[in-house]
């Protein structure tokens, strides 16, 4: 599934990183938040 909006969830394989509206970024394991969509996509791969 491709990202059609800048705040979509990022899915790579069976892993999905959810976008948090309150934290304005993607929540990764360990509760770290990445706000740059390109960096989030790269880390998900």
UniProtKB/TrEMBL annotation:
UniProt-listed Pfam families: DUF1317
Domain of life: Bacteria
Protein known as: DUF1317 family protein
Source organism of this protein record: Shigella sonnei
Lineage: Bacteria, Pseudomonadati, Pseudomonadota, Gammaproteobacteria, Enterobacterales
């Amino acid at each position: 599934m491709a990202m059609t909006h800048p705040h979509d969830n990022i899915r790579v394989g069976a892993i999905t990183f959810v976008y948090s509206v309150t934290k304005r970024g993607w929540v990764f394991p360990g509760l770290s938040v990445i706000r740059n969509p390109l960096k989030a996509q790269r880390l998900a791969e």
